[in-house]
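Hi everyone,

Forwarding the result from last night's run.
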Amino acid sequence: MQINIQSDGLPIYQQIANQIRYRIAARNLKPGDEVPSIRSLAESLRVNPNTVARAYRELETEGMLEKRRTKGTYVAEQDHQQSIRQRARQLEPHLDTLIMYAVQLGLSLDHVTEQLRERIEVLEKRRTKNKEDLA
């Protein structure tokens, strides 16, 4: 599993947990998939194993990972509503940034909402065109 650690002030365990959360929410990691052992991930990231253990504990507490005695750590089964909440949680920091910029630029909620709708249409058209090109 490729995890990138940055020196942006966010604690390393949170960076690890956030990236695993994103992979689960994006369904790159599916229920039942095994995640690397604490030791192997710590070695590959060159961090203290306690840092990885803390990230895994946080994800276990949230119900995203589960330990199976003597077998390893796996992505937990999730109900559909929980999955939607987790994906929505991944979007929150980006929404906060968008709101901050909108306020700084003096844009109304209606204006930002209309821009979002327009961008969604553009991206959907682009996605449809790419699918047609591949067919």
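DSSP finds five helices and three strands in the chain.

Cheers,
N.
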